[in-house]
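Continuing from the previous page of notes. For each protein in this section, the sequence appears first, followed by its C-alpha cells. Read the first protein now.
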Amino acid sequence: MFSPAVNQAAPSGSVRSSRRRQRQSNDSISGQQPKAKRQRSALSDQTFLPPEDTPEMEEAKPQKVAGLANSRPLASMPRREIAVRSKKTRTGDRSEKEDGISILTKNDTYTVSKLHALPDRLRADIAGRQHGAIYSDSGYALSLTHSHAMVWQYTTNKFAPDTYTFALPYPTKHVSDPLPLGALVSASTSSDEPGLVVIMPESGKITYWESITSAATLDLIKQQRNGVELTIPGLYKGEVVTQVLNAESAGFLLAFTSGRTAYMSVRDAQGRPAITVQFMRSNSGLTGGGIFGSIRNYVKSGASEHIAAARAGESDKIGERNVVVATSNGKLSYWKIHRGGHNTLHAETEGRETIVMAMKEKQPDLSDLLLESFDLLDFTYTPKPPSDAASKDQGEHLLLLASLGRQEAHYALVSVVLKSNTLRVTDVRPIKSYTTPVNRAATSKTRLHLPNPALVAYIVFDQAVVVFSMAKQPDSPESQLRAEGHILPESFEDVVDFRGDMNVEIVGSGIEEPHGNQHGSKDSRSRRARVKHPATVLLVRGSGGGVIRIAATDTSKLTSSIPHKVTARTKLEQAVLYGNSAGNPLNFKVRPELQFPLEEVGIAAVELSLDILKAKVASGKISNAPSSIAANLKGRAAALHHLAEYIKASGVVLDRVTRWKLLWDAEKMEAASNIWKAYDASVAAKPEGQKRGLLDDLVESIHEDFKTNPNPEQGEGDRVRHWFIHDIWNLEIAIPWAFQVIKYTYQDGLTEHSYVMNILSEADDLVIGALESAFSFRTKNLELYNLQTERLENGILEANYEGLPEIWTSTIFIAQNVRKQATLAGALLQEYWPKSTEERPEINPALMDKIRNESPRLVDLAIRANTERIRWVSVQESPALQMEAETLRADQNKAQHEQLSLLAAVFDRADDALAIAEKHRIMSTLAEVMKQEIAFSTANLRNPGLDAAQHQYWKARSSDLDDLVRLYFDKFGPEWADAFYKLQIEQESIADLLNTYQDKDLSHFLTAFLRSKPEYSKISWIHEVSRSHHYEQAAETLLNLGLKHEQHLWSKKVELSLGKLARMADLQANGHSPKVEQKVDLATTRSQLGLIKIQQQAYTYVLPSIAAAIDDNAEVQLAFEAHGNKDLKKQKALSSLLEEGLRHLVKQESMGVMTLIDLLTLMDSVERSGEAGSFKGEQFHLALKALQLGISDKQEQILTLRIIWRRCILKDDWNVVNDTESKDDEQVQDQLRQTALYMTLRAGFKNRLFEKDSPVKQLSPQDILGAGTRELDHRFDRLDVSIRETIMKDMQAEDSALSLFIEQSQLDNWYKAAMDLAKSDFEGEVHLETNEGDSMRYAASLLQEKEQSIKGQAKLDAEKVFNSKKSKVQEKLEGKFLKSSRRENNQADHY
C-alpha cells in the first residue's frame, strides 16, 4: 500500500509544459536573483513540510491545466481527458467559501462535506476496483486502478476537474491481483508540478514520471516513453510490495509481505531521474545469510512479521528522515534513513505485552481476552511535550491504533514513547463508539490520522470513520478531584458511518492541517488551499462516493472545562437535516455502541421538532429568508417528516405522549402551510392598496408573550411572514383569534355587514384550512408515528385520552370560538339568504354563496373540536374540568342541533346536514332532519301543479330518502332506530310507527326498541300481536305493565285482562301447560283484577257525591266532604290516609291493597234512599276480601285482619246496642242486625270467607286489642320515626275506644251474639235453598251445558277478540288514552 500521511510533500505550482516555463509574477521573484542557467539541483529544505488544508477553503492561486494525456495510449482507453486553458484569476481574487462543496452532515463539532471535483472516469465506474491517496500539500488526489493512474486537483471548484490520466506500462492480468501502488513525488527543479511513481506489487516493476504535466504533454505529441523504469532486484518469489512511504527528502520506503523493508530513490545525486532500490538490514537478519538463509528466514517469519504501517517523522537535516515501522503483532523499529540509501536502525522492540497490559489495566473487562487476539493496525507521530523537546535523547512519540478481540473488536489509542529499544506507554484511550472487527478483505487498510494541532484523531475504517478527541481537559480543582478518583470524563468520540446498501468503501485517505507554514512554491499560481480546521480527506468508491472531507470545525468545545459528548439531539438533527439528501452515502442510523436511553431520545425528538417549528434549526435546504414562505414551510415540513421516518426506521419505541407530540407538531406545520396558501392567494387577488386582511389584524392582536416581534433594524418589516417563520408553533393561539378579530372589529364600530362578511370569509379560510388539514394529516400519518393502534373517528381519538396533554386542535379557546364562528355565519346567512340583490344590494352574492357553501365544513369542524375537547376533559381529575365537560356538552348539543337544522331548513343544504349528522352519529338531529325531508318531499310530490319532470324529481327524491333511512338501519342499527322511533312517538305518529319500515328486515328494530322501553309498553303489545305475532311476549308485556307500572285503573284492568287472554291464547295455540311462573302470573292477575273490581265498587258508591265537581281537585274535595270520617278529626294521620285513598279513588288511580283497605275501613258510609242495600254492610266485607286477594305475608295478614275487625266493630256505637231497656228480643236482634259487625259476619259466611284455608278469620274484641300500636305494615318502614309514632298514636286511639266498649258495653257478649245471629240467619237461608235442591240441580245442569257451549265458542274466537281489542285500544292510544299516558310517563322512575 501507499501512505500519503504526514510525509506527503509535493509543492504545488503552475501547470505547464516542461519545455516552456511560464513567467513568474513580479511579486514572486522580488528579492530573488535570476538563475544563470537551468540546472538540476539537490532538494531544498522546502521540499517537505507537514501538509495542511481545511474543509472550508479558498483556493489561493488556481491555475488551469494546459493539456493532459496518457503516457501510453491503450486500446481499452475510450478517450483522452483534455482541458481547455481558461482565464486566470488575479492574485487577491476571493472565491466563494462553499464553492465545489456539498455538506453531507454537520454538528457543533465536525462537518462532513463532499468535494465535487472527481474525474468522469471514476464517477462513471463506481464499482471498479481502485485505491488512492490525498495530497493536501499540493491539492492533488491520486487514484490507481489495475490499468490506470489518475491525478487531479481535488480542491477545485470544477465538477469535472482537469485530470492527468496515465496508462500503466505493465497492467495486472487479473482483477483479483493486488492493485498497483503509487505516490506523488516532490516537484523537480524543472517543473512546478509533482511527479508520479507507480509500483506493480507482484512483479516489482517501478515506473517514475518526473512531472505529471510533462508526461501528459509528451504523450500528446507521441514522443518516446517518458517514464523511468526499474524492476526491484532480489525480490523473492511470491513476495509482494504492500506499501510505499514517501520519506522525502531522504527518499521512499517500501514494505513487503515478507516483512522486509527497502529504500527507494527516484533521483540520482545530481537530481536526475534514476530509480534505485536496496533492502534494509535489521537485527532480525531477515535480509542476510545468503540466498538460502534469506529464503529460510522469509518462510520462518511468515505473518508474524507482517508490516502494519510505516510512518516518517520530521527531520532536522536535509536528506535525512526518521522512519518507524510497525508490525501487526506489536514490533516497532525506529530507523534513520539518508539520501543515497544509507540507513541505521536506532531502536527495535517487541511492544505487544506492554501494550496489552496497559489496555487491560485501563479496561479491566478485557482481562479475559487472549494476547494472541492483539492487532496493531496503524500509528502516527504525535507532538512532543516541551520537557522532551529540550532533551537530546527524546525518543519517538507515537500514537498507536490497537485492537483486542476477534468476534468483537476493542479498539484503543495508545500513546507510547519509543526510546533506546524500550517502549513506554504513557496513555490509553479506549474507543467505545466502534467495535466492528476490521474487514481483512477491504481494499485499503485501517488508517489513523492525527492532523495538527493534534486535538482530533481520525480512525479510518473501510466503511466508517471514528472522530476521536485527543484534547485534555484544562486543569481545575474539579478535574484534579476527578483524576484522583479515577472518574475523568470520557473523551468525545463519534462515528461517521457509510451506507452498506450503496456499496460504499473508503479506498484512500489523507489529512489537512491548519495554520502551517505555506511550504512549497510561493508563486501566486500555487494550488495549495488555505486550511482552517484539522481534517481527514477520504477517497470513497461506490454510489454517492468521491472525495469526502471530515473536518473538526470547533475544537474549542473539546478543550473546554465542560466535557463534550455526542447526544441524541445531535444525532437526530444530523439524520433529519441531511439523512434524506439524494445520493448521500452516509448512514445516519445510530450505531449499537452509541445507543441512547429512550427517555433521552424522546426529549431530543420533541426539542428538535419544536425547534424546527420555531425555525431555530437551519440547514442548506431550509432558508429562513422571507422571500418564499411556501418553500420555507415545505422544507420544515419535510424535516419533520424525516424525523418521524428516522425514528420509525431506527426501531426506537418512544412513549405514547412523545409520539403524539411529534405528530401534533407536524400537524401544525401542515396547517400553517394551508393557511399560507389561502393568505397568499387572497393577497394576490386583492387590488393594490387593499391588501390588508384578517391575518394582518390577527398577528397584531396576538399577545407579545405568544409571538416574537420582528426586528426592523434587520429588515424584518413583514409581521405576517415573520410570524409564519417563527411563531407557528403557537398556532393554537392564532386560530381562535379568527373569530375574536371579527368580534372586536364589530365592537370597534365597523358594523357594515358587507365588511363583516368579507373578514368572515377570510376567517373561514383560516379555520377550515388549518383544522381540516390537521385532522386529515393526523389520520393519514398514524402509522408513520407508530400510532396505528390508536382508533380515530373523523380525525379525533375515540377513547384513551388518559395521560395525554391538552390537544392543540381542541383547546378551550378553539372549541368555543370555532363553534361561535359557525353560529355567527349561520346568523348572517339567515339575514340575507335567499334574498335577492335588489333587496340587499350591499351584499356580494358570490361571497354570500361561498360562506353558505363553507358553512357545513365549519359546522363539521366545530363539532369535531368540541367533541375532542369534551372527551379529553371528561377523563381529567380536576373538578373544574369535569364541570367544563358538562357545560361544553350542553352548549355543543344545542348549537349543533340548531346549526344543522338551519343548514337543512334555511340554507338548502339538507344533504350536508344529513351527512354531518350521520358522520358524527348525532341521531336525534339526523332523525329530525330526515323526517322533515321526507315530509317535505311527500308534500311536494302531492302537489297537483307539478309537471312530469318535477314529479319525477320528487318521486326519485322520496325514493332516495327511503333508501337512506333503510341504510341508516343497516349502518347504525338500534342507535338510529331508537332516535327515529322516539321522534315518531314524540310527534304522535303512532300509525307511522307501527306501519312504516316494518318489513321483515326491519321489524325487529321496533320490536327491540319497544321491548327495551317499559314506558312504551302500551304500544309494544300491539306491535307484538299485529306484526310479530308473539302472543307470549304480548302477554308478558301486558302483564308486566299492568302488574308493575300501570297507575290508571281502567287501563290496568284492560291490560291485565288482555294479558291474561293473550297468555291463555298462547298456551292454547302451542298446546302447552302453563309453567310455574306463568301460573303465578295468572294467579296474581286474578287477584289484581279482583282488587280492581273492589276499587270500582267503591268508586261506584262514591260517584254520585262527585257528580257536580268541575275539576279533579273539586272531585277530591266533594268526596272527602261526603265520605270523610268525622270521628277522625283528632286522628290526623288516619285522616290523611283516608284523604289519600279518596284522591286515588276519585282519579281512578290504581291503589295498593293496604291503601284500598284503609279507604274501605275508614270512609264514612252514607245511606241513600232508593238503594237496595247499605254500603256499610259491604265495605268491611270488601276489605276482608281485598286482604284475601292482595296480602300474602302471614304477619301482615294477621296485623291487617285485626285492624279491619277493630274498625268494623268501632263503626257502631255499642252503648246504644247495649241499651236493651224496654225492648223485646226481636227489636234487640233487629238492632244487632244493623251493625257493621253482623253484616260483615253474615257476608263472610255467605261468601265462604271463613273457610279453613282462608287467611280471613273471625276475631273477638280481645283478639284485636293492640293492633298497630307497636308495629305497622311495610308501607311505613322507611318513614321518619316521628311520622310512624303519629300513626301508632292514632291506632292507640282506636284501641282505647275499643277497650271502653269492652268494659262498658259488654262488647264480648255482643260479639258472640252477632256471630251466633249471623250464623243462624245464614243456616236458615241455606235450609231454604236445600228445599229447592232438585230445581237447583236441574238448573245447574242446564247452566253447565250452556257454559260449555260458551267456552268452546270463546276459544275459537280468541284471536278475533285480540284484533278487535287491538284496534279499539289503538284508537284510545291516539286519543284520550295517549294523553293520559303522557302524564303517566312522567313517573318513569316507577318503571
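Done with the first. The second protein uses the same format. Note its length before scrolling.
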Amino acid sequence: MGKFRFSIDRGGTFTDISAELPDGSHYVCKLLSEDTANYPDAPREGIRRILEQFLKKPFPKDEPVDASSIEWIRMGTTVATNALLERKGTPTLLLASEGLGDVLQIGDQSRRKIFDLKMRKASLIYDKVVEVQERVRLMGADRLEPLDPDNRVERVHTQEWVEVLRAPDMDALRGQLEAALREGIRSVAVVFMHSTAFPEHEQLVGRLCEEVGFENVSLSSSVMPMVKIVPRGQTTCVDAYLTPIIATYLKNFTAGFSEAIKNVDVAFMMSDGGLCPMEQFRGCRSILSGPAGGVVGYAATTWSDERRTPVIGFDMGGTSTDVSRFAGQYEHVYDSEVSGVTMQAPQLDITTVAAGGGSRLKFDAGMMHVGPESVGAEPGPVCYRKGGKHLAVTDANLVLGRILPEFFPHIFGESEDQPLDRTAALAAFQQLTDEINAYNAEHNPGETLTVERVAMGFVDVANASMCRPILSITEARGFSASNHILSCFGGAGGQHACAIARNLGMSQVFVHRYSGILSAYGLGLADVVIDNTVPLGVPYEEANAALFERELVKLEEAAGGELRKRGFEEGRIALHRFLNLRFKGHSTCIMTPRPPDGDYVRAFEREYLREFGFVPQGRALIVDDVRVRAVGCTEKVKQPELAATTAPHPTPVTTTRTYFGTEYLETNVYRLKEMGPGHTVKGPAIVIDDTSTVLVEPNCSAEISAHGNLTIEVGGAKKGVVSTALDTVNLAVFSNRFMSIAEQMGKTLQRTSISTNIKERLDFSCALFGPDGGLVANAPHLPVHLGAMQEAVRWQIRHLRREAREGGEAEEAAGAGGTAPPAPSAWDSWETVRGEGWREGEVIMSNHPDAGGSHLPDITVITPVFSGGNPVFYVASRGHHADIGGISPGSMPPFSRCLAEEGMSIRSFKLVRGGSFQEEAVAAMLSKPGTRDVATSEHALPISGTRNLSDNLADLKAQVAANQKGIGLVAELIAEYSLEVVQAYMTHVQNNAEYAVRCMLRNISRVQHLGEVDSVTAEDFMDDGSAIRLRLTIDRRDGTAEFDFTGTSPESYGNCNAPRAVTFSAIIYSLRCLVEDDIPLNQGCLNPISVVLPPNTLLSPSPTAAVVGGNVLTSQRVTDVVLMAFKAAACSQGCMNNLTFGDQSMGYYETIAGGAGAGPGWHGESAVHSHMTNTRITDAEILEKRYPVLLREFSVRRGSGGKGEWAGGDGIVRDIQFLRPLSVGILSERRSLAPLGLAGGGAGARGENYVVRAGGHVQFLGGKNTFMVARNDRIRILAPGGGAYGPPAEK
C-alpha cells in the first residue's frame, strides 16, 4: 500500500489541499488560513483531517500528527509574502558601502502614484544602517591607472580589473555590530558596491557577523549575484528580513508532527516555479511561492507539445488576479516589484491586477470603480455574514445567480457553518442602485438602472480591468492575445473566464478539474530546481568563449552534484544553459537559452526582433551573466480519470435563473463529479465542483475530458446594442478601453526604443486625442507632458487643415493666448506648409515650444486615425531624446540665451509621407547646426547638430510604431462599437472628468470659506527674482475657475521661460491631484478652467526664447504656486536638479530628486521626484560601469525639510568624482530662494552646488553653471528640501 502525498497552497484567505491517497485516488479540501479559535496551523490541520477521515482512526488536535503514512508534503505559502506586505519581518541591519547607506531608501527616486500629493514610498524593511568604511572601483577589462598607486589592484572572475580603494576596518565594525545586536536586531543584509565582481569584502564582513552572533546573515553577492545595487540590495534585505520568519514557521510546522516527519520529503515552491527542500527555502525566493504553483499546474495540464498553442494563465483569487503566459517553457523575470520593494531574483513572469472576488465596488463622481481596494477576508464581502459593509465582486456574482449558495461551502457566519447571504447582498446592491439612480436623475435623466444591471455593470468593469494585464503580456510584447488558450483557475476565475476570453477574441477556455485549487494541485506536478548565476559583463566574442564554457561547466557540476546528493539519477536530471545578453550601452537584457545549433547571437537577435520590432545594427553584444538551471524530475501526482458513463448526455441537478447582459436566462446546473468523459453542455450553464463554480455563457459549449477537465469553445456574444446615449456601466468600460490604448502605446514605445532616456528612465508619454485635439486618455507617464501634448496636437490641426475657414489666418496669427505670428523657422526648407493638409498614413514630428512643445529634447510624434476619409482621432507620443544638438552635450545647456542654442527646433515636419519614413531629411535636420537670432559675444559656444543621430532615428521610429499601435487599437474599438458610439463615449468620459473637477472646485471654495465668486492669490519667485503671480478666481455657482497669471515677470534673457503648454500641464496635473476620485485624466479636467497668460512673459515667451529651464524648473514653480493657491500642499523642492556631463565621445544626463512638500495631515516624503517629473535615476553600479565616474555619496540630506506640524521632506546629497577630463553642466533652482512652507510651516533648505577640485579646493557653482573638470574633481549637489505645513509645535 502506498502513502499519502499532500500538495498544499496556503493563501492569504484560504488554504487549499490536494491529497493523493494511498490507492491513487484524489481528495481536495479547503480551509480558512487563519482560524486560531479552531486550529493553530491550517496546512497541518488539513493533513490531520484527511488522515483521520481515510485511515479511520482518531488524530487528536492537541497531539503531534503521526507522519508515518506520509510520503511527501509540497507546499506553497504566503507566510513570507504577508510578512513583507504587513512589514512584520525580522528586525534587520543593513551594512552598506561608505557614502551609500541610503541608496536602497532612495531607490530609483520615482514615486508610485503620480497624482498622490503625499508621494508615499514604501516603508523600509530594515531597521538600521551602518556604513562600512570600504570601497572598490571597477577599472574595466583594460587595466587603467589606479587612483592611488599604493592601492591593491587585481583581476577578478569577470575579467575586469578592480581597485581596492579601502578595505573594511573590522575592529571598528565589530563594535557597531555588537551595539546593533544589543538593540534586538537579529538579521543582517550586507550590500557592498560591485560585490558581484569582488565579493571578498562581503565575505569577510559576513563571517564577522556570524562570530558576533547574528542568527541570519545574507550577502548580496550570494543571494543574487547580478549587477545593479538597488534591486540586488533590496532583494538581499528581503532575504534577511524574511528568512528567519520562514525558519520559525517551518520549525513550528514540523513540530506539529511526530518524529516520523524526518523521513517525509518536505519541499516548498519557489518563486521561479521549482521546488526546493524545506531547509533551503529562503525569503528572497518565496515571494511568489503560492502563485507559482498555479503556473506549474496550468502549464502541465493545458499545454500540448503537439498543438503548441500558447496559453494565458488567469488566476483570479480573492484580492487580486494573476496572469501569466506559457509557450512551452516558463517565462522568468529578474526585476520585479513587490510591496514597493524591487526584487532581483528569478521569478515566474506573473502580472497582478488589483481585481479579484474581494475587490471593492464603488460609485464615485458618476463612474463605477472595481478595486484597487479589497474588502479583505475579514470582514469580507457583504455576503460573508461577518458584518462587511462594502460590496465586492463576489456579491455581484451572487446577486446575478452566477454563484449558488446551496452549492458553495458553508463556512460563513460566526459559527462558520452558514451559506453565503444573498439577501444581504441584494439589500446592499439596492442601496447602491438607489445612489446611482439619484445621480442619474440629476445628471443623466432617463436612465434608471435595476439592481441586476448595476451588478452586471460592475462585473463588466472588473472584466475590462482584468483584460488590461493580459494585453500587456501579449499585444504589448508582440503576441496576439486571440491566438492563446485561456487557462482559468482560482476560486473566482470560473465565473469570468468566458467573458474575458470573448473580450480578448480567444476561442477556447481550459478549466482544470481542480481549477479552484490548481495552485495546490500544481505543486504535485512540479520539479526540484537549482538555479545559479555568475555575473561576467564581458563582450560576446571568440576570445571569451573559453571563459563562458568554463563558468557554465562549473555551474553545471555544482547544480548537478547537488541534485545527485538528493537522490536524483542522471536520467532524471536536466541541465539548461543560458547567456544573459544585451547590446553594449543598453540595460535591456534577454536571458537567452542555449539554442539547438549553439548560435546564441542568432537566437538573441531573433527574440530581440520579436520583442522590440527591430535589431540595432553595428552594436557589440555583452554577456552580463551566465546561468544554469538544473531540474530534477520528480514523481508526479497522477491525474485522476472520470469513470466511464453510458449516459449520452449529462443530467442537470437543478436549474436556476442567471443574469446575462440585460436579462435573466434559465440555466442548467451540473455537478462535475456526476458527468462523464465526452459529455458536453451548452451555455448558459453552471458546472460546479467542490472547489469551483464555472459559468458557461450563452453561445459557448463545454466538453468534459477523460480527466474531468472542461474545454469551453467560446462563440461570439449576442452583442447588445450600445447607443450614443450615456450609460453608467459603459462609461466605466470605455474609460478602461481608452486608457488601455494609451498604456499599450507606452509599452510599445518603451520596448521598441533604443535610448536610455526612453527605455530605462521612462522619460516619455503616450496619449489619445479626439478629433478636435482634446485629450481623451493619457497613460500616467510624465506629468510635464500631460497638458502640453494636446496643445501640440491642436496646433498641428490648425496648421495643417486643408481649407482655412474664414478668419483662420487671424486665429493662427494671434494664437490661443494672443502670441505674435510664428517667426520663420530655421528649418523652413523642411517644414510643412500651412494648410497643406493631413493625409492618411502621414505622421507629423514637432518639438517647437510655439507649437505646443515643452523643451526641444522632447520630440512629439503625431498620427491621425482616419475613418471614412477623415481624421476621427489622433494619437501622439512624446519622448525625451538624449541629444538634438545645441551648445552642450545632452541639449540641456545651463546658459542658453535663445532657442537655437538648445538644439534643433521644428514646428511641423512630415516624418512619414506616403508610408515612407523620411530618414534622409530628418537626419539632415538633426545634423544641421542652428543659427542664433540674438546678438552674442565672440566667446559664445558653437552650436552643434545632434551628437547621437542613430539613437534619434531609432527612437523616432519607435514613436511611429507606438502611434501605429494606437491606431490599430482605436480601429478595433470603432469596428466593435461604431464611430458614433466611440466618439460619443469619448465625450461622456471627458464630461465625467469635467464634473469631478467642478465638484472639487465647489468643495474647495466652501472649505476655504470663499464667497460665491471669490479670489485667492499666490506668488513665488525664481532664483533670479522673476515672479510668478497667480490670481485664482473660483465661481461656486457653476464650478469654474480662472487662473490669471497677470503680474508674472517678463520673458527672461535666459532659459527659464516656460512655454504656454507647460503651464497648462502644471494646471491639469494640480487639478487631477486635487480630485480624490480615480477619474481619467483628459480634456474634461480643463473644461471648467480659463487661463490668462499675458504674452511675452515668463509663462508665455516669444517663439525664439530659450526654454530648456522652463520645462524642468519653472514648471515645478508654477505647480507650487497653483497648489499654494488651493492651500493643498507646501512647496516641494521646486527643481529637477539637471546634471549633464560628457565630451565628444559620450554624454550623460540625469535628474536628481529632493524633498516633497507637506500638506494637511501628512509629512512630505523624502528623496523623491515630485510633481512634474518622475524619471528614474541610473543605478549606481551601472553608472560606474559605463561612465568614467565614481559615486562617492548618494544619501538623504537629513534635516533639510521644513519644520512644522507636518514636516517637509528631506532632499538628497549626490557627490560624483570624475575620472577623466569632462564638460559638466548643472541646471537647477531653489539655490537662492527656499521652498516655501504653508499655513505657518517652515521653508525647506535651499539647494547647493559645489565643485571640489582634486586638491581639496571648493568652489560654489550657484544654480546654473557649465565648467570643465579634471581627473578626480568632484561635483557635490545638495538638493532642496520640501516646505512644511502648519506651525511647529511649541516646546
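What the second structure shows: The chain has 25 helices and 55 strands. The CA atoms of residues 513 and 709 lie 5 Å apart. We return to this in next week's lecture.
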